[in-house]
Amino acid sequence: NERQNQLININERQKEELIQLEKEKDATIEDLNRQIEVYKDQVRQFSITIIQLEKNFGEEQEKRIKLQADFDNLNKNDKGIS
Known about the structure:
Structural class: mainly alpha
Number of helices: 1
């Protein structure tokens, strides 16, 4: 009978430990899910930044091409005058 009580006590402790481990696992999963959401938001922001930088780069390239064309035209005009 005492042996049976010991086994019951061990079984109860194991159940409590299992419940505690399940709670810890659930908390860890929730924490990881929150971190994933943060990372997703960061990726979205990086994507927006990259798109903006690409747009700015394209605009700067267009300005550079226009300035080069204007410069080339000025050089042609200067050569034509002299």
